[in-house]
Amino acid sequence: MLEDELGHDIAFAAERGKIHANQPDHPGARISLGIVERGLSVPLGPGKLAETIAAPAAEIARCADEALARAGVAPGSVQRILLVGGSALLLPVQEALQQLCPEARLHCENAMTAVAAGLALKAGSAFA
User: Fold this and answer.
1) Per-residue model confidence (pLDDT) at position 54
2) How many independent structural domains does the chain possess?
3) How many Cβ atoms sit within 10 Å of the Cβ of residue 13?
4) How would you classify the pairing of strands 105-107 and 80-82?
């Protein structure tokens, strides 16, 4: 794999598998590694994905809880959570945050561009 420089191809295959496993209607999601060996694949259904990222999702919720505590905000009073970044789109991460803040609506419509858009707005206002 190293000699054939397949690292990026394998990473993209893993990402495709993760995206499919994140959709409950894809119980048979797999990471296709046919580029390494014909027919090679690894199962990664929603249950396996949830199991694999349970600890990081719990840590994200723990950090959010700590941030709320430091700010003096009760988790039950949070009405909206803006999720950014690819990991925010993972259902186990969303479920952990929803459990922490049960009254909150989760927003992830611009998860992949929200940070860059916010930085651009801030940079634009610095020159105004």
Assistant:
1) 95
2) 2
3) 20
4) parallel
